[in-house]
Amino acid sequence: MISRRDCLRSSSASLLALSLGACKPTTAASPASPSTPPPASAAPTASAASAAASAAPATPAASTASAAAAPFSVRTPIFVLNSLDATLSVIDPLTMTELRRVPTGKEPHHLYLSPDEKSLLVANAVGDSITLVDPRSGEVQRTLTGIVDPYHLRFSPDMQWFVTAANRLDHIDLYRVGRPAGGGFDITLVKRVPAGKTPSHLAIDTRSTVVYASLQDSDQLIAVDLATQTPRWTVPSGKMPADVYLTPDDRTLLVGLTGDSVVEAYDVSVSPPKLIRRIPTGDGAHAFRAWGDRRHVLVSNRVANTISRIDLQTLAVVDTYPAPSGPDCMDLSPDRRFIFVASRWAGKLTVIDTEQKKVVRQVSVGKSPHGVWTLDHAPRL
To answer: Cβ(259)–Cβ(271) under 8 Å?
Structure first.
């Protein structure tokens, strides 16, 4: 029998996916050993173009040249995680072509930037490891092993906590973050918090006091207090809660219901939280990406093959964009003109023009693409 977890991970399912030299072994991780970076591609990367463009004077001519050099408003590599290939696709944003594929650990799903912004963390869920990659070049820097089932990951805003959701093993791990004088960071496991079935996605409040997580196969939400490392509450949710998004004022938690066609909105300023709205978006509501104006957020609807833009003040959908073949994780160009989304079932990175509301480019990547990220992006609030 196919579980709901398997449905999310199957690429054929129709319903439903410092400087690092200072990183030290921790109670949760075996000693991190440097990995050998893959051979550099002969193709040019976007980093040189980015550096040249940023050094140019801000004249009209320079602005025109910059726009021409960055047709999709991004000048640093776009990264796409290929979950079933255990690779990371490095995309040249100037030509929208795949430069190379970088090996990762088994079943990578999500990405996050390190506290010093020098490394992109790739969470290899089944590989029990985290691969650290240069966010400007795509070169592998180091691999941390012994990080148990890191399906989803987050640093707290104060950079004191590192949290992972163990999707297979049903727990949430809390690590303390150290910032050595020599740079980078290290992590030490403080507490492994048992949770319901299939912890999926995480969000942490701006005060770094509480982490919220969806429990996908329990149809529940949990809040864990970071000071005491204990649950504050666990409450029922709608069907198959996936990604969670906390509004900038910390009051409202949005939950994408992949087993439904809505986003649920909870008032988390009270305990237990109160369900205040069910926002119709599209079948398979799944992953969020802030619009960058503190007013709107995007949600991908994996079955409806659309992306909805939600107004955080009215809690209503104000725009919809086409997104073929199981849209999943997204990133957004600095000017919000282009959405970069993983088309999970097609094995492609899809580029959507938000003004024309149409797909303008697709790039073939690996099997079951999931996480998408670029350093040159719109704000994440």
So the answer is: no
- pTM score, whole prediction: 0.84
Give me the average pLDDT of each 10-residue run along the chain (381 residues). 42 35 35 35 36 34 46 95 98 97 97 92 97 96 95 96 98 95 88 98 98 98 98 98 98 98 98 98 98 98 98 98 98 98 98 98 98 96 88
Give the Cα separation of 312 and 60 in Å (integer): 36
Residue partners of 368: CB distance under 8 A and separation at least 6: 9, 10, 11, 17, 82, 83, 84, 85, 344, 347
Provide the 10 A C-beta neighbour count for residue 318: 11
* pLDDT value for 69: 61
* Neighbour count for residue 179 (Cβ, 10 Å): 15
Residue 164 pairs in a beta bridge with: 153, 173
CA 251 to chain centroid, in Å, comes to 22
Rounded CA separation 62/6 (Å) = 50
pLDDT score at 31? 32
Rounded to 10°, the helix 46-55/60-69 angle is 170
Q: Which two tokens stand for residue 140?
A: 């592998």
Tell me how many degrees the CA angle 222-228-230 measures, rounded to the nearest 5.
30
Cβ neighbours of residue 99 closer than 8 Å, sequence gap 6 or more: 41, 43, 45, 77, 90, 91, 92, 138
Tokens encoding 329: 């994780």
